[in-house]
Specification:
The protein is α+β, with helices and mostly antiparallel strands. The chain folds into two domains: about 10-125, no CATH class; about 150-245, Immunoglobulin-like, CATH 2.60.40.3080. It is built from seven helices and eight strands, in the order αααααααββββββββ. The chain has helices at about 10-20, 30-35, 40-60, 65-85, 90-95, 105-145, 150-160; strands spanning about 170, 175-180, 185-190, 195-200, 205-215, 215-220, 225-235, 240-245. The chain has a five-stranded mixed β-sheet. A three-stranded antiparallel β-sheet has the order 1-3-6, with no helix packed on it. Helix 1 crosses helix 3 (about 40-60) and helix 3 (about 40-60) crosses helix 4. The protein is rod-shaped. The two termini are about 60 Å apart. Bound molecules: zinc ion (ZN).
Length: about 250
């Protein structure tokens, strides 16, 4: 509302008082008219009303009813000033997830500000959704990291096998740490066509593949992203090689 002055803090406090005591009708006509046309003051009154309701809850029980009333009057002034500051930092104030506990006496008069409040809540809801999505993405990232986590025993075995030449018959061509491309192949030299076992495990030691071959290569199966280990074993069950496969 641009054509007249906004309600003073005292007037806003009166509105809030009226809201909380179901006495909206007793407000002066000019205040009711202003509230009807001014979302800003209407919202401010609601904020003050809510804040006062909370302060009332706090002060309950530690004073006689008449004394409480006196305290209340003093609080109104403090609350009104505080609220007028808080109102302009409104989102921060309303961000606390709690419901408005009071009922609006005349729906028509306050509908606008109610709408404004619900829009604010909607925005907060959007923020929370965005936050949830962000946190969920973090979880997805964690899963990504988890599938590359080395398996303790297989990793030890891999480390121990590095630099050892257990077999003179079979020489491995695939790098010890292998980053395969699509439809890639594990390769070794097997000039004597020895019978060999090939085993592939994921990083939780689940067996992905286990087959025997006397050739010098094996196409990789379709592998999800993650860390895998492969073993080449002789027909005498001698471990010839342990390699790592990292699918990215
Ligand atoms: Zn106003």
């Amino acid at each position: 509302m641009e054509d007249s002055k906004h309600l003073s803090e005292v007037e806003v406090a009166m509105c809030a008082d009226a809201l909380n005591s179901n006495a909206y009708n007793t407000l002066p006509e000019y205040i009711k008219t202003h509230l009807e046309h001014c979302d800003s003051c209407a919202s401010e009154a609601m904020v003050v009303a809510e804040l006062a309701e909370e302060l009332n809850e706090v002060s309950k029980g530690d004073a006689a009813p008449d004394k409480r009333f006196t305290i209340g009057r003093h609080l109104w002034a403090v609350v009104a000033v505080a609220a007028s500051i808080l109102f302009f930092v409104g989102v921060y104030f309303l961000n606390t997830p709690k419901k408005t506990t009071y009922k609006i006496p005349l729906a028509d008069d306050m509908q606008k500000s109610e709408k404004q409040l619900s829009e604010t809540h909607e925005n907060i809801h959007k923020e929370e959704t965005a936050k949830w999505v962000e946190e969920n993405n973090d979880k997805a990232d964690f899963e990504k990291i988890a599938c590359y986590e080395p398996h303790k025993d297989l990793e030890n075995l891999f480390q121990r096998m590095q630099g050892t030449h257990r077999s003179h018959e079979v020489e491995i061509e695939t790098p010890a740490v292998f980053y395969p491309v699509e439809n890639d192949t594990l390769r070794w030299l097997n000039p004597q066509s020895m019978s060999l076992y090939l085993e592939i495990f994921d990083n939780t030691e689940n067996e992905i593949l286990n087959h025997s071959t006397n050739t010098s290569q094996a196409p990789l199966p379709d592998l999800d992203n993650g860390l895998y280990y492969w073993k080449l074993i002789s027909s005498d069950f001698d471990l010839l090689f342990v390699g790592k496969i990292i699918v990215e």
